[in-house]
Amino acid sequence: MRRISIFGATGSIGQNTIDLIARAPEDYDVVALTGAGNIEQLAKDAKRLRAEVAVTAHDHLLDDLRDALAGSGVVAQAGTDAITEAAARPADWIMSAIVGAAGLAPGVAALKQGTTLALANKESLVCAGSLMLETAKAHGARLLPVDSEHSAVFQALVGEEMTAVERVIITASGGAFRDWPIEDLANATLDQASSHPNWDMGQRITIDSASMFNKAMELIETREFFGVQPRQIEVLVHPESMIHAMVGFNDGALMAHVGPPDMRHAIGYALHWPARQALPVARLDLAAIGQLSFRAPCETRWPALRLAREVMETGGLAGAVFNAAKETALDEFIAGHIGFNEMAMIVEEVLAIITSTPGHIDATMTLDNVAKVDHLARQEAQRVIHNRAG
Ligand code: NAD
Ligand code: MG
Fold first, then answer.
1. Can you give the pLDDT at residue 137?
2. What is the rounded distance in angstroms from the CA atom of residue 168 to the CA atom of residue 193?
3. Under CATH, to which class is 2-145 assigned?
4. Cα(148) to centroid(ligand 2), Å
5. Is the CB of 83 under 6 A from ligand 1?
């Protein structure tokens, strides 16, 4: 029996993970499941999977969670500290699938117990890549990628030497507005940005796919995960989302990972690694698909890609600023306070302000300093938004 925990269990990645676990309940002892507002789902899964503990991020929902779990034997807890504490409960495999910077502290706590951390929460690598990697090293923990592109790169690298790697190509579907005239983007609505052509994901990452902030974060994630230089990483628009990534070697070979757009593949690979096990995903019929297409990404359409390259160039805590400013801008877009294009403009402004003020970006990468600069970037983002409106 493997002891496993799922952080962000009620979300899209969390539910796909539970789908796989629930197919073989005899193989797993479920330790902790965490969620936020969806108490009904959290309690239902915690009871079904006989979890030791279920934790909601929201303190005020503790009584609701207790009521929903009454008589089940599952312990109910609430609050962000309780989530981080749950990450320290001994487990053999932990899924990190909280959305946003909120996934960082539990991720670090999980690594400190020397476990295997399946990482969907790309924000923790964007905000604090070296902290995550150093914590993993210091405690003998293992990080496995869950983002489809990074799982694909990881699989293409099996048996290869990193010294033979020339480049890493991550693909992007192009999101909801791939084929829109650029001048229409300013008026894109929340509904339009919240539908993805190929993947069924949480709302935030779906909007980040339309703006390419998702791919921008994945550029940084690629650099951190695989230790490649920014100039070695390319983004390729591939509307069909069948090839998830390619690794280019020094003999000219490109190893491509091809598969259906179903996150259960990457989750299942991380769950069973280093073995492969049968997974309930569709098998591709390439003859029926007929052709796959590719194009270069346009940085005028997607300024987020340029910003990610600037962040990698700046280094230090620039990733934490980038992520926090993006999260704030995304909240404001979802709330209907700013337009679609304004998200990138705000992130760019916040980055410029904070990187030009000494003492922030170059601070040591500790959880405290990441939290401080995250807070500052959110404040600056609000100020920039306020000034734009005024
Ligand atoms: P989602 O919005 O569907 O789910 C997010 C989960 O995080 C939920 O369980 C929610 O309750 C929890 N959560 C939200 N705010 C929280 C907070 N402040 N504290 C604690 N928990 C909180 O998101 P998702 O699409 O499942 O994405 C999860 C992560 O995986 C993200 O980092 C995303 O970028 C990454 N990812 C997702 C996909 C996908 O297909 N959905 C693919 C690749 C990577
Ligand atoms: Mg991805």
1. 98
2. 28
3. alpha beta
4. 5
5. yes
Q: Could you tell me the CA-to-CA distances from 76 to 90, 98, 232, 269 in Å, in that order?
A: 18, 18, 46, 30
53 exposed, middle or buried (CB, 10 Å; 0-12, 13-18, 19+)? buried
Residue 175 CA to residue 196 CA, distance in Å, equals 6
Integer Cα distance of 208 and 301 in angstroms: 13
The closest ligand to the CA of 215 turns out to be 2
Ligand 1: which of 39, 45, 64, 98 to mutate, judged by most atoms within 8 Å of the beta carbon?
A: 98
Asked if the bond preceding 274 is cis, omega within 30° of 0, the reply is yes
- Output the residue whose Cα is nearest ligand 1's atom 2: 202
List average pLDDT for each run of 10 residues in the chain, which is 390 residues long: 98 98 97 98 98 98 98 98 98 98 98 98 98 98 98 98 98 95 96 91 95 98 98 98 98 98 98 98 97 95 98 98 98 98 98 95 96 98 93
Residue 8 CB–ligand 1 contact under 6 Å: yes
CATH 3.40.50.720 residue ranges in the chain? 2-145
Please indicate whether residue 12, judged by its CB atom, sits closer than 6 Å to ligand 1. yes
Which ranges in the chain are annotated with CATH 1.10.1740.10? 315-389
Domain 315-389 has CATH 1.10.1740.10: yes
State the pTM of this model.
Answer: 0.98
The per-residue pLDDT for 139 is: 98
Residue whose token pair is 């960082």: 104
Pairing of strands 243-249, 254-258: antiparallel
- The DSSP H or E segment spanning 249 is strand 243-249
The pLDDT of residue 199 is: 86
